Each structure stands twice: as structure tokens, then as C-alpha cells.
Design the sequence.
């Protein structure tokens, strides 16, 4: 028992393994038809790789899986903007600046499902109106990333259609300006007027290609995610906090008391704890963010059917924590669930992980996972959490593999 909660944690099971090819950063998507999709990165987190994202589908709530083609072939957010309906869209997280636009407009690729997530239609273009965002030219991105093998570039052909739609010549790709601020699937909430608020981090102000602090902005859609309009800057860096990278990777949820609640990454280093904040006016303004007490990245929030609030995050480690009050004020910090605890054979073997990027040895801790867990409520009051393990040992004496691992966590009052 944890407080007034009965928390149960299954042994981890393997969704997918890879002997050599990269396999990391799973994202779980709950479809309106009951299916669960798991998107995986196949690139080592390298920019514009030829085969960037894989997709697997489960029709039995995460117990068995089959691979299928990814309709966008790139990292994407899958968002249901019609609760109770059959329409869901898969949005590419990458945006392309419309050449010469003033105020600035950005195009992104998306596909739509009208059968509850069973299938997706052809690629379409959506639009985001955010005049303050700064981007990066592909030439500068290449030059910054190539030395550490973070650049791949073989997937640029996948974007020829959206490059052309935005007014660029795809054959002169170095001058094309891109950003990555389609709203996160973890950071959306329906507003009182029926529109949807989405939060997304972006480089704040300045000129393209500059190293800028990151902040989190609010964008609104009134057409189910096909177009977005800038609403407000929710969390922006100030000089007094300039030692942090910025407010980024927001997780947003509407609480039962009507408030909006948000957890954000501030950098991920040992002096950069996550923060959280509340809004009482539909996200127009936010309380000054305060410490969430844990260093981490990529937070995710889920409200269970019983009203309990659940959060997951990573780096260092992979964690799940519960708030039985459902307010963001009652986190059971002394009863965190470690998703790493079930990896005893891997931990004892402590094999060296494989990697292609040359910057990884400079990280401050041993690289054994991207530590970016994903989580959904797969059954009433049961969470399904996914994470990658880069030095997974399947049986004693076996060589290390890359693996996507799944854990089920029950939480009953």
C-alpha cells in the first residue's frame, strides 16, 4: 500500500529487440478504437535519417504486437481531438518556415484517421502561425551535427513535398529553415469554448540559427489540429535563470477541479529540476513555476479513471509517481516506482551499450537508455509504460541487445 493507494508493478516484458540497428525512445498512442500504437525511433536520434520511425500495433491492450508501416516515416505526435469520436491525427513534429512569410507561418505534415486509428489517409499539410519562433537552417543544423554523427540527411527526400509547399527549392536544402514545435501529444487540453490548447517548447525570439533560450508557448486549434494559432508565451526564460536551458518538454492536463496543470523540463542537468505550475484562466496566465523536486526530462501526465494523477519522467532513471489528490499537490514522493528495478540481470551484467553518435561518451553518466519513458492508461486504473534499454541482457551470458520494454502498473484506491 502507498498512502491510500494499492500500487502493483508487473515484471517488464520485451516488445521488440535489435542486435545492431538503433531502437529507442518509444511513444505509446491510445487509439479511439481501442488499439494501442507504439512508435519507436530507428536512428540513434540523428537528424533526417532515412528510416526515422517504426510503428507497432496491439489489438489486445499491449499484450501482443505486430509491426506496420509508419504513415509519416518520421517522429510524430498522435492526438485525438474528438473524444468519443473516430477521428485522430498523426502530426510530424517538424515544421518548415513558409519562405518570406510575415508574420511567420510554418507548415507541417500530418495524416488523418477517420476509423478510430485503424488506418490513416494520405499526407496533408497543416499550418502553425507563430511569428515569434526562431528556426534553424538545414545548413547550420548539418554543420553543427555532422561532427558528432547526429546528422544523417538521407531522409530529406521525405520532406520534398512540404519544402516545395512552403516555397523552398528542395535541391538547395541548406537554406531551408525548420523548427520543431507542433504541440506535444502530452500537452493538450480542451478549452471551455471547444477549442484545444496545445503547449510546445520553441527557441524564443532572436534570429534564426542563433543559440537561444527555450520557452514554452500556447497554441490554439479550432479545426482538430490542422491549423494552430499563437495564443501566448506561457513560460519564458529570464536573465536570473539563464543558467538553465529553458522551459521545455511540457506535460499538460486538466484537473478535476478545473485548473490546468503543467510539468516542464528545465534542462536536465544536476542543477536543473523539473518545475510545475497551475493556470486558473484556461492557460492565459500561469502561476510562477516551482520545483517539482526531481531532475528529469520528458514528463508525461495521465489522469486515471479513479481520479488519481500519474506522472512519468526520465534521465536519470525512469520513474512513475502518483498523486491520490488529483491536484498536483499530493505527490507520493517517497513511493516512486522505478521502471529500472525490473532489469536486474541487465544491471548486474552492466554491459557497455552500443551507439553511433560521438557525443554520447561526453555525457555525465553511463549511456544505457535514452531514459524517455512513455505511458498511457491501457485499462481502467492500469498504466502501460514503455522505455528503451540499450544494453539489455535477455539471458545469462547472452550478448547485449537494444530493446523496447513494457511494464504494467496498477493503481487502485
Sequence:
Amino acid at each position: 500500500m502507498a498512502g491510500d493507494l494499492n500500487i502493483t508493478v508487473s515484471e517488464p516484458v520485451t516488445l521488440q529487440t535489435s542486435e545492431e540497428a538503433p531502437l529507442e525512445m518509444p511513444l505509446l498512442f491510445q487509439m479511439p478504437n481501442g488499439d494501442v500504437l507504439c512508435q519507436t525511433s530507428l536512428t540513434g536520434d540523428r537528424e533526417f535519417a532515412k528510416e526515422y520511425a517504426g510503428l507497432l500495433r496491439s489489438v489486445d491492450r499491449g499484450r501482443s504486437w505486430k509491426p506496420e508501416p509508419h504513415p509519416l516515416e518520421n517522429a510524430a505526435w498522435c492526438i485525438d481531438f474528438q473524444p468519443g469520436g473516430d477521428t485522430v491525427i498523426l502530426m510530424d513534429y517538424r515544421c518548415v518556415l513558409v519562405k518570406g512569410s510575415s508574420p511567420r507561418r510554418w507548415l507541417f505534415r500530418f495524416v488523418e484517421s477517420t476509423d478510430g486509428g485503424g488506418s490513416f489517409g494520405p499526407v496533408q499539410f497543416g499550418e502553425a502561425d507563430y511569428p515569434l519562433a526562431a528556426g534553424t537552417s538545414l545548413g547550420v543544423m548539418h554543420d553543427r551535427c555532422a561532427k558528432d554523427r547526429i546528422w544523417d540527411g538521407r531522409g530529406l527526400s521525405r520532406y520534398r513535398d512540404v519544402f516545395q509547399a512552403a516555397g523552398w527549392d528542395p535541391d538547395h536544402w541548406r537554406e531551408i529553415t525548420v523548427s520543431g514545435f507542433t504541440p506535444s501529444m502530452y500537452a493538450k487540453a480542451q478549452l471551455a469554448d471547444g477549442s484545444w490548447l496545445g503547449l510546445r517548447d520553441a527557441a524564443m525570439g532572436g534570429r534564426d540559427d542563433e543559440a537561444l533560450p527555450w520557452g514554452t508557448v500556447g497554441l490554439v486549434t479550432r479545426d482538430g489540429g490542422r491549423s494552430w494559432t499563437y495564443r501566448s508565451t506561457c513560460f519564458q526564460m529570464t536573465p536570473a535563470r539563464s543558467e538553465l536551458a529553458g522551459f521545455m518538454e511540457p506535460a499538460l492536463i486538466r484537473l478535476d477541479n478545473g485548473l490546468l496543470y503543467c510539468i516542464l523540463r528545465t534542462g536536465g542537468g544536476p542543477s536543473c529540476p523539473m518545475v510545475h505550475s497551475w493556470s486558473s484562466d484556461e492557460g492565459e496566465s500561469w502561476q510562477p513555476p516551482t520545483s517539482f523536486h526531481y531532475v528529469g526530462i520528458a514528463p508525461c501526465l495521465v489522469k486515471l479513471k479513479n481520479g488519481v494523477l500519474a506522472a512519468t519522467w526520465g534521465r536519470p532513471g525512469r520513474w512513475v509517481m502518483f498523486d491520490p489528490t488529483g491536484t498536483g499537490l499530493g505527490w507520493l514522493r517517497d513511493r516512486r516506482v522505478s521502471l529500472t528495478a525490473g532489469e536486474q540481470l541487465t544491471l548486474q551484467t552492466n554491459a557497455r551499450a552500443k551507439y553511433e553518435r560521438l557525443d554520447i561518451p561526453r555525457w555525465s553518466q553511463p549511456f544505457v537508455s535514452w531514459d524517455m519513458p512513455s505511458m498511457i492508461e491501457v485499462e481502467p486504473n492500469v498504466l502501460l509504460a514503455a522505455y528503451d534499454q540499450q544494453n539489455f541482457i535477455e539471458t545469462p551470458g547472452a550478448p547485449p541487445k537494444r530493446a523496447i520494454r513494457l511494464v504494467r502498473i496498477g493503481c487502485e484506491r
